[in-house]
Design brief:
356 residues, Rossmann fold, alpha/beta, 36% helix, five-stranded parallel sheet, 2 domains
Length: 356
């Protein structure tokens, strides 16, 4: 954030007008030549895009399974450079994006915090981002500030150096590429039983501040006859913006604190941790809510075809003993992230046809 206060921050001409626009209008801002250029919101994706990006991810991982195919992938984008700007702690998102870039031959640089940049000297976020765009073609950003990614993408699209922006997590509101890899994981898990349509999908834990489950909820508008189960402590219930979104599209959902009672009905169980980092005083917020844990004994209750997911990192929400079960999908979910993000980058730079 540097030393600038809210009062002294520069406001770029047209920025406030953009921020006041509807979500549909904002999404249109990030389309260039009929294709998504900046990936900022889960609401940007329709069913055709989701189906195609999953097929592209499959094709990418299949091509990379051979030496010849891997070398071909590395020749697709060796002329491109990417910046990973991660000023919020990350393991999986950072490494999966880094390796996705390498798969495609993209050269990378990184910044893992503002303490080593000129923001310490009072440089604005906007000037920092424009500096990155002077050197690279793609900025992959994770930031604790809600709305950071959309402001960044809008700014660069109004300069002479419009580097693409991929949102790797923006505050507690959005994590669109996580939602994409979650869809990819669900598609692979349900490929022999009709896909995602018609499934009962539970989201468990801190739904109020969990940007992964929020983003995934938005994507449910693209599927038929899906029913959502929001399972959480009262203080961590899904926020009204998501339930209102679902109500407006007649997507059914159940809110409950009784996890075990609905387990037999579920096709997917998406576990999350308590997001203490967003608490006003983390020391006063308990980390454990045992009634919302998935335990080994629960494996006897859920469907044989169910899939258990988690965006990771986990704390206590899933017992380690569950890892050995064939329905534990979170480690594959983690691997899926690299392939999905490689496919997404290939799409953004228009080399997806070379892979397909």
């Amino acid at each position: 954030m540097g030393y600038q206060s809210e009062q002294t921050k520069q406001v770029y001409e047209g920025q406030e007008e953009f921020l006041a626009k509807s979500m549909k209008e904002k999404c249109e801002e990030f389309i260039i030549d009929g294709r998504i250029f900046d990936v900022i919101f889960a609401q940007q994706f329709d069913r055709a895009f989701l189906d195609n990006i999953c097929k592209l991810a499959d094709a990418t991982r299949k091509m990379a399974s051979t030496k010849e195919g891997s070398l071909k992938l590395q020749q697709l984008l060796p002329h491109k450079r990417a910046m990973l700007y991660f000023v919020q702690p990350s393991t999986r998102t950072f490494l999966s994006f880094l390796n996705a870039c390498h798969i495609l031959g993209i050269k990378t640089s990184e910044s893992r915090g503002t303490s080593t940049s000129s923001e310490v000297k009072g440089e604005s976020q906007e000037d920092t981002i424009r500096t990155f765009a002077s050197y690279v073609d793609l900025i992959i950003a994770r930031h604790p500030e809600a709305g950071f990614a959309e402001k960044t993408a809008w700014l660069l699209n109004h300069t002479d150096r419009p580097a693409a922006v991929l949102n790797g997590g923006s505050g507690p509101d959005q994590h669109p590429t996580q939602a994409l890899l979650d869809i990819y994981t669900l598609e692979r898990a349900f490929k022999d039983i009709g896909g995602i349509d018609g499934k009962n999908i539970a989201m468990v834990g801190d739904l109020k501040r969990g940007r992964t489950v929020r983003s995934l909820s938005y994507l449910m508008k693209n599927y038929k006859d899906v029913k959502l189960y929001f399972i959480s402590p009262e203080q961590f219930k899904m926020k009204d913006d998501i339930t209102g979104f679902l109500d407006g599209r007649n997507i059914p959902y159940v809110e409950t604190e009784d996890f075990e009672s609905v387990m037999p009905e579920l096709d997917a169980i998406y576990m999350t941790r308590i997001q203490n980092e967003y608490a006003d005083d983390p020391s006063k917020e308990p980390e454990t809510y045992p009634e919302f844990f998935f335990k080994k004994e629960h494996l006897d209750i859920i469907k044989d075809t169910a899939v258990i997911m988690h965006p990771l990192p986990r704390r206590y929400e899933i017992e380690v003993a569950v890892d050995k079960d064939k329905r534990a999908g979170y480690w594959e979910q983690e691997r899926n992230g690299m392939w999905l993000r490689a496919a997404l980058i290939a799409y953004v730079f228009g080399v997806d046809k070379d892979i397909m």
